[in-house]
Every structure is written in structure tokens, then in C-alpha cells.
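Changelog entry

Holo records now carry the ligand SMILES as an explicit input line rather than a separate metadata file. Below, a converted record for magnesium ion, shown in the new format.
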Amino acid sequence: MMWHRPEGFSLGGTSRARLRVWNLTAGYGPVQVLRGLTFEVKPGLTVILGPNGAGKTTLLRALNGLIPRGGDAMLDGAELPEKTHEIVRAGVSLVPEGRQLFGQMTVRENLELGGWLFSKAEREHRIEQAFSDFPKLRERALQLAGTMSGGEQQMVAVARAMVSRPRLLMLDEPSLGLAPRMVDELLGMVRRIADAGTTVLMVEQNVKKALAVADRGYVMERGELVASGDSRLLARSTVVREAYLGAQDSQTTDARDAVQRRQRGQGTATPVG
Ligand SMILES: Nc1ncnc2c1ncn2[C@@H]1O[C@H](COP(=O)(O)OP(=O)(O)OP(=O)(O)O)[C@@H](O)[C@H]1O
Ligand SMILES: [Mg+2]
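Structure line, unchanged by the conversion:
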């Protein structure tokens, strides 16, 4: 049985939201990580690629209000608020790096946390929808989240984010540490969420698979966006092929290898598309 209902998602929007960002800056104390990023997240599935330490997580955290940001951000023409709970209310939800479930709480209790902004009745309704979107989670409702496999936990994390019924769903390396088959199922699920009308912004290290499911992508290095474009064009571009996919289109799909290759002075960064 698939982890999610293949016909689509009752949770999540059909709003096909659009996020536009100008000159985004963010960092930690005196250290500026994001150096004025201007980009757009269109309806569909957008992926952000880049080596370790590029600032991908920092970008998602800034957009989610977990760290202060500079610049301007508009979600469907309305200014993106600054505080996390207001951002969630505005329709933006983050599946954080490392999932960050509460391991000593049940699956159901973790989902309840995704609906903390809503009335009890509304929350119950949304959790019921989550169980119909993710039928396997219903069977596991009372299991402690910490006792689930990595893949199962990632599904709970996505379901938890969907309980807030986002217009923009952001995911930080959802496939990290998962077996290849689980990676495929997870990315397929993310694709369906986007197809159902929730705009998705995803950070991924699994470059080849991410570009295969995404509509478009950005490549980030040292706090800057160095390439962008249609995902098929990006996959064929020199910057991505040399830095992330390996010269002979080898099975090397992990961006972590790319960092080392880049540090050895190979690969160039040129915008495409
Ligand atoms: N809490 C923090 N305090 C200080 N510096 C931080 C903090 N978190 C991240 N950084 C620094 O900010 C930079 C960007 O980190 P970030 O986590 O955004 O990178 P990333 O692209 O998500 O990397 P990875 O692929 O390893 O997840 C790094 O130099 C990192 O050391
Ligand atoms: Mg990260």
C-alpha cells in the first residue's frame, strides 16, 4: 500500500500560490549568510540545490520567521508577516531539516501540533483529512513517533505540515537518510501535493531525483543564487552536470560529493534558462 492516497490530497490548498522575494538577507548574529536573494516561487514544485553550508536551510528558516530577515517577501501580493505563527496563518508551512517530530508523542499527537492554531473542532476535522490523505498513518495513530522508521517519520512530518493546510509548503531535505524506494515514494508524494494546487519549495541533496520531479530549480552557493531555470534545462546545464551529477552522468546524485569536487576546483557556475 502506498503511503498516501494516490488520487490527491484533501488537505492543502488549490490556490496555486506565488511567493516573490526581493533582496532577502538573513544570518546569525554578525554573520550574514544570505546575500540579498531575489527569486520567485511559482505554482508547482520548485527545488533549491546547493552544497553543504550554502544557506539553503537558512533561506527556509528566514521565510518561516524562525530567524529575522531583511528584504521584501510577498505571498500572492500580500506582505509575508514576520512572526512564525502569523506566517503559518498566512499559509506557509515548513517541514524542517531532520523532521523534528516529538518522539515521545504519538503520531496523532504530532499531527495535533500541526493544527495548534485552529479550534479543536477544526483541528479534529483536519486530522481526519490527514488520515484519509495518508491512510497508513491512521493505522499508526497511537504509535510513538520515535519508534517509527525514518521514512515513516518523514511522512508524519509532511502530514503534520499539511494539517495547517498551507498554500506554500516548504520542505528541507525530506529524502535525507531514506532508502531509494522510500525516496521515490516521498518525492512522488510531494509532486502530487504540488499537482493538487499547493505550491511547493523544496531543498534537496538528491539532485537527480529532485530535478526529475520538480518544475524548476535554483542552485545556491555561498549565500547566493548562481543558476536557475526549468528543471530539465538545469539538469542538462553545465553547472549542474559537472558539479552535481558527475561528468559521465554517473550515479553520483549526492550534492555532498559536489562540494568536494567543487573544492578541488572543478565545475563552473553560470546561470541557465
Ligand atoms: N544557528 C547558527 N548559528 C551560526 N551559524 C549558523 C547557524 N546555522 C547555520 N549557520 C551557518 O550558516 C551557513 C549556512 O548554513 P545552512 O544550514 O543554511 O546551510 P545548508 O545549505 O542548509 O547546508 P546543508 O546542506 O549542510 O544542510 C553555514 O556557514 C552555517 O555554518
Ligand atoms: Mg540545510
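Spot-checked after migration. The beta strands are 19-28, 31-41, 45-49, 70-75, 78-79, 92-95, 168-172, 199-203, 216-221, 224-230. Residues 243 and 266 are 7 Å apart (CA to CA).
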